[in-house]
Design brief:
Shape: flat
Number of domains: 1
Largest sheet: none
Distance between the termini: 40 Å
Structural class: mainly alpha
Helix content: over 70%
Radius of gyration: 18 Å
Number of helices: 6
Strand content: under 5%
Length: 134
């Protein structure tokens, strides 16, 4: 199942990126902070903070961010670790997005256990990041 909201955010990000690049070519004043730059940065953070609702969404979002050096830099270096924290939290799939366990097969239960373990690892990473900031 495709994450339509994520796909819409990616589309908006690309549009904002193109608008900024066009404006930058015309103005060639990186420090001027035009409206296009702000829209581009806002679109970046909307993608970073978008909560995934499926493993497919986690995969799509990860692949897109890794493929875009500006987004990857924002996750790695943005806002004193806040962008990385927001990104990691967005990858935790909420339990209420999953079907009841009674309808699952054995292989799906094993996958659920892997997801829970990944969620625990992400929570530990987030706690370490928060501990370093204090």
């Amino acid at each position: 199942m495709s994450d339509l909201a994520l796909e819409d955010l990616i589309k908006r990000y690309k549009e904002a990126q193109d608008a900024w690049r066009e404006k930058d070519l015309i103005d060639d004043r990186l420090g001027s902070n035009p409206v296009e730059w702000r829209a581009y940065m806002d679109a970046s953070f909307h993608i970073i903070e978008h909560r995934c609702s499926s493993l497919e969404g986690v995969s799509r979002k990860s692949e897109f961010i890794v493929s875009d050096e500006n987004l990857l830099d924002a996750v790695q270096n943005g806002c004193d670790g806040e962008a990385l924290k927001a990104f990691l939290q967005s990858m935790v799939i909420e339990p209420d997005h999953t079907p009841p366990i009674t309808t699952w097969h054995e292989d799906e239960l094993a996958l659920l256990e892997e997801i829970k373990a990944a969620k625990d690892r992400l929570a530990a990473i987030i706690n370490r990041i928060e501990g370093k900031k204090q």
